[in-house]
Write a structure and sequence with these properties.
The chain is mostly helical. It is built from 4 helices and no strands. 0% of the residues are buried. Pfam families: BrnA_antitoxin (PF14384).
Length: 98
């Protein structure tokens, strides 16, 4: 299923001037003063912090019993599957140095 993206229609320079003038005339939406701008605090970025070594999303068919067992252990089941695979691959000498 595709995601419909909104088409952005940019105003012409004349429309932009009119929009800006109307915004400046609005007493409920006055521009911030320099003092107000100085008091603003940057907002923390959304999402999880970046990992040192990013993981790769993939699709792997698993035995239904294995999947059910990992899911039954609660949240973080995907990470536990990854940890089990890393442990197995490391034990079999398949992983190089980090």
């Amino acid at each position: 299923m595709s995601v419909k993206q909104a088409k952005i229609i940019m105003p012409s320079p004349a429309e932009d001037v009119a929009i800006t003038a109307a915004a400046l005339d609005d007493p409920d939406a006055l521009p911030l003063t320099d003092e107000e701008m100085d008091r603003l605090i940057p907002r923390r970025g959304q999402g999880r912090p970046a990992l040192a070594a990013a993981k790769v999303a993939t699709s792997v068919p698993l035995d239904p019993r294995v999947l059910a067992a990992f899911k039954a252990a609660g949240p973080g089941w995907q990470s536990r599957i990854n940890d089990a695979l890393v442990e197995w691959a490391d034990a079999h000498g398949m992983l190089g140095e980090r």
